[in-house]
Amino acid sequence: MPELPEVEAARSLIEERALGREIVAVDDSDTYVCRPHSPGEIADALVGATLTSAHRRGKTMWVATDRGPVLGLHLGMAGKIVIGEHEAGEPKPDGPVLAPQWDRFTVFFADGGSLILRDKRRLGRAVLDPVIEHLGPDAAEITRKAFRERVGHGAAPLKARIMDQSVLAGVGNLLADEALWQARLSPVRPAQSLDDEDLDRLRNAIRASTRRAIRLGGVHHGEVIPHRTRDGHCPRCGAPMARKQVGGRTTYWCPEEQV
Ligand SMILES: [Zn+2]
Q: Is pTM beyond 0.90 here?
């Protein structure tokens, strides 16, 4: 599942390859992926415009245009952004070669290229003017002060707190397990039980785990991730990994070191 590092890679791909290209057609015919818009609505807003900048907060991504409308793109559980390079003057949204089965949303550029949301699971979204006000600060950029204030509250398990996108945007299931293991903090202790030193250590672990995942190409490169199995052992101390549902998600941790 895409987490913050995968979304950042997609944002950076759009920034490098899709900005400044004039939009001549949009395939927004998938009414589920493009809900609540009706077919043609996103196309009407974007055709003739140029993408000007690509942004991200947590796992939410949006692209600004020179005409005002903002295109929100969400990767869902399995989506990818693909930049296609087709022959000039050949925008064929329905063509079998240019629009494979899993291409849910496509922006066609005047130079023949395209920006595609390719998503086998069909859980991604393309939407105009996405609402981002409900999201907390980005997990990779939040200040120490804001992190202490937002995360260190409530009786909810710590893991659920850091995965609450309104508290902190961008931490998914794997990144949470990795960062908590790096910080030696138990996912099940109440968020309010952390002192400032714990909170600072956790913030550093989230930032370091995120940077590492961006550098290596995904959260599955985390140090503890390969050991998240029923018979897995902690790669640091060798203790059998504990496993439990926390905040509705399968969670693994080292019960010896994460307290
Ligand atoms: Zn351990």
A: no
- pLDDT tens digits along 23-56: 999 999 999 999 999 999 999 999 999 999 999 9
Token readout for 133 is 């006000």
How many A from CA of 64 to the centre of ligand 1?
45
Instruction: Give one DSSP letter per residue of 144-205, joined into a string.
Output: HHHHHHHHS-SSSBHHHHHH-TTTSBS--HHHHHHHHHHHT--TTSBGGG--HHHHHHHHHH
Only one residue has tokens 């908590």, namely 180
**How far, in Å, from the CA of 184 to the mean position of ligand 1?**
8
Q: From ligand 1's centre to the CA of 131, what distance in Å?
A: 40
CA 118 to ligand 1 center in whole angstroms? 38
R_g of the chain computed on alpha carbons: 20
Distance between Cα 186 and ligand 1 center (Å) = 11
Q: How far apart are CA 54 and CA 64, in angstroms?
A: 6
Residues 205 and 176 sit within 8 Å (Cβ to Cβ): no
